[in-house]
Design brief:
- With 236 residues, this protein is of the alpha+beta class.
- It has two domains: 12-38 and 150-194 and 223-235, 2-Layer Sandwich (Translation Initiation Factor IF3); 42-145, Protein of unknown function (DUF541), domain 2 (Alpha-Beta Plaits, 2-Layer Sandwich), CATH 3.30.70.
- The chain contains three helices and nine strands.
- Strand 4 and strand 5 (101-118) form a beta hairpin.
- The two termini are 44 Å apart.
């Protein structure tokens, strides 16, 4: 059986030039990397409604009532309804097929409302159970992310860790190759890697006496960073 091996090579470019000490110097390029896993502190909930009625105005009004009921529910649960935004809204002819032929059958209206709020498991569970027990029956999807303030902290930590990782690697390479780090020639900042937030969907529950939503384990988010640093080295 063949054994697979991954070989990481770091090339030392000895480009001679004369320094103040008249010693031969060269360059060593090292990539520093860092990874952080962190739990999200912000939730985004999306509520999707679809109404089909024969009259245009009735369809639109019915959709409006669903949105008003959602605002009421959010207000009762302590959420700021002003943060609720409409991200999709459309009304059109409802077309159906009867015996292979298309025909118009009233109007269909769709609306998607979105709200962003600090993530607390108990708040989310209460909200989902409240909605599942109300007269409205929206499709609900929700995702989790870092707030802007937490994202900035993570980014700064990643940069510091990546620089430290590059410094340690350069020190090990220089020490084992009989050279000495004399300074930094160049720094190239890598691309920040932000993960896509997984989406979750609350499915309709058929139970009457039991709430539709009982909670789940939110995945940690993984963020990565890299920095290329070129060090000036000289013979010891």
């Amino acid at each position: 059986m063949k054994t697979k091996m991954t070989i990481i090579s770091l090339t030392m470019l000895l480009v001679p030039f004369m320094g103040s000490s008249q010693q031969e110097q060269g360059m060593l390029r090292v990539q520093g990397s860092s990874t952080i896993k962190v739990k999200p502190d912000e939730a985004i909930a999306r509520f999707s409604y679809e109404i089909i009625q024969m009259d245009y105005k009735t369809t639109v009004k019915s959709l409006g009532r669903e949105a008003d009921q959602l605002k009421k529910t959010l207000r009762q649960e302590g959420f700021n309804e002003e943060n609720l935004k409409t991200v999709v809204f459309n009304v059109g002819v409802n077309r159906i097929y009867v015996k292979g032929h298309q025909q118009d059958s009233g109007y269909v209206a769709r609306q998607v409302l979105e709200i962003k709020f600090p993530y607390k498991p108990e708040d989310l569970i209460n909200l989902m159970n409240k909605i599942s027990g109300s007269k409205t029956d929206p499709d609900v999807t929700f995702s989790f992310q870092l707030s802007d303030s937490e994202m900035e902290k993570v980014r700064m930590d990643l940069i510091r860790m990546a620089v430290e990782d590059a410094r340690k690697k350069a020190g090990v390479i220089a020490g084992t190759s009989g050279t000495e780090i004399a300074g930094i020639r160049e720094i190239n900042y890598g691309e920040f890697s932000s993960p896509e937030s997984p989406m979750y969907r609350m499915m309709e529950s058929k139970a009457i006496d039991e709430p539709a939503y009982g909670g789940f384990i939110v995945q940690e988010l993984t963020f990565s960073e890299s920095i290329d640093i070129t060090y000036v080295i000289k013979q010891e």
